[in-house]
TrEMBL record:
PANTHER family: SPERMIDINE/PUTRESCINE IMPORT ATP-BINDING PROTEIN POTA, THIAMINE IMPORT ATP-BINDING PROTEIN THIQ. Belongs to the ABC transporter superfamily. It comes from Aurantimonas manganoxydans (strain ATCC BAA-1229 / DSM 21871 / SI85-9A1). InterPro entries: AAA+_ATPase, ABC_SmlMolc_Importer, ABC_transporter-like_ATP-bd, ABC_transporter-like_CS, P-loop_NTPase, Thiamine_ABC_ThiQ. GO terms for molecular function: ATP binding; ATP hydrolysis activity; ATPase-coupled transmembrane transporter activity. GO terms for biological process: thiamine transmembrane transport. Keywords: ATP-binding, Cell inner membrane, Cell membrane, Membrane, Nucleotide-binding, Translocase, Transport. This is Putative ATP-binding protein, ABC-type thiamine transporter.
Length: 244
């Protein structure tokens, strides 16, 4: 089976920080990425999305090498913490952009957009502008759009960070339901500052530290912190300076 994402010996330097990533994500797998501020989580996503180019190594998505492939041409979708929507377009057209970039929406596509809005609990919201919606509702619109696009890889960069715990859980459930409705669910790489978001959702979790993947494994095992004292320190189960 094709891997959704492979980073092979990828290197990148940001000012004084050297990054080095080796990673393989299976088709349909959900990977959470955690780690301290400045560890390189967003840089990892930038490299995969094509916003930054590695100085060495290769990145492949869905079996295709990505060197020289522009961000818009990569077979992936991204949801950020905010600014996912075009403020001048209504909700219907923000979602329709996922399948009709020129906003010419054929009747069959119209039904698909409406079904996607329904799937995220926003039936009837099509005529609203993003400014007339809550933060959680706006992120649901962003999810509806990426699921219409049907790409093999979905990058989530702290998409629910601005939401409270109950809303974050609700969004994770919506994401899980959207995946379950697809014959071939996309692989997900989800950067989060909330390790608890990974539990029950992410198959594996990667812990980034100082520009590399310091530990990776099944989510519950990784978050138990027993395998690596750096994970336990990050989670606060070992105090700084205390011996593991
Ligand atoms: N545009 C840039 N130019 C120079 N250095 C940068 C740039 N962006 C990030 N860095 C540096 O690269 C390192 C990794 O940053 P990155 O944003 O990837 O970390 P992060 O793990 O996503 O952090 P956070 O959790 O705070 O978002 C940091 O040391 C940061 O200062």
């Amino acid at each position: 089976m094709k891997k959704a994402l492979v980073l092979d010996n990828v290197r990148f330097a940001h000012g004084g920080s050297e990054m080095h990533f080796d990673l393989a994500v299976e088709a349909g797998e959900w990977l959470a990425v955690i780690g301290p501020s400045g560890a390189g989580k967003s840089t990892l996503l930038d490299l995969v999305a094509g916003f930054a180019a590695p100085s060495a190594g290769t990145i492949a998505i869905d079996g295709r090498a990505m060197a020289g492939v522009a961000p818009a041409e990569r077979p992936l979708s991204i949801v950020f913490q905010d600014n996912n929507l075009f403020p001048h377009l209504d909700v219907f057209h923000n979602v329709a952009l996922g399948i009709a970039p020129d906003l010419r929406v054929a009747a069959a596509d119209r039904r698909r957009v409406e079904a996607a809005l329904d799937a995220v609990g926003l039936a009837g919201f099509g005529k609203r502008r993003p400014a007339e919606m809550s933060g959680g509702e706006r992120q649901r619109v962003a999810l509806a759009r990426v699921f219409l696009r049907d790409r093999p890889l979905l990058l989530l960069d702290e998409p629910f960070a601005a939401l409270g715990p109950a809303l974050r859980r609700e969004m994770l459930v919506i994401l899980t339901e959207l995946r379950a409705g697809r014959a071939e669910p996309p692989a997900i790489v989800m950067v989060t500052h909330h390790p608890e978001d990974a539990v029950g959702h992410a198959d594996r979790t990667a812990f980034l530290d100082a520009g590399e993947i310091a530990a990776i494994g099944p989510t519950r095992r990784l978050l138990a912190g027993d395998d690596d004292p750096r994970v336990a320190r990050y989670l606060g189960t070992i105090a700084p300076g205390e011996r593991p």
